[in-house]
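Hi, here's the filled form for the chain we discussed.

Project: internal
Contact: R.S.
Residues: 148
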Amino acid sequence: MQRLFLWAWKGGNNDYWKHLVGLEKRKTALSDHLCDLFAAWSKSFVGVLPDFERLYESWEILGSLTHLERAEKDELDAALAEEPRNGWIWCPVGRSGWHSEMRRRILEESLNDATKREILEAGFAKGDEEFLQKAGENYRRLASRIEW
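And the returned structure, exactly as it came back:
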C-alpha cells in the first residue's frame, strides 16, 4: 500500500512535485497533477465521465483508508480518544484534504449502508465495519487539518 501513494514513500516529499509548471503553489501538487493526467488519459479507455475528479478522489480516499489497515483497532481507539485536532493516525490524504465538499460527499456515500457493505465485502478495513467507521473518522480528522 505504501507504493500506491508516492508522497508516502521515504523521500517522496510533496515539495518535489511543486517544481512542475503550474503546480508551484498547490497543497497537493502530485495528487493534482495525477488527477489531471489520468483524466486526460482515461478518455481513451474509460470514456467521458461526468465527474472524473470525484472518481479520482474516491480512489485516493479508499487507498488512504487501506493505508490505515496497518494500524490495529486499539491504536485507532487511542488516537480517536484524543482531542480531534491532534487525535489521528497519519495516512496519505491527497486532494480531498483541501477539497472538503468532495470529501464529505464521498465519505457519506462510502459509509452509507449499501456502499459500506460492498466495501467491506471487497476486503477494505479488514472486513470490519467498526474499523471502517473509525478509519473514516481518522481520515476526516486528518484531512480537516489542511482544508481551505
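Let me know if anything looks off before we file it.
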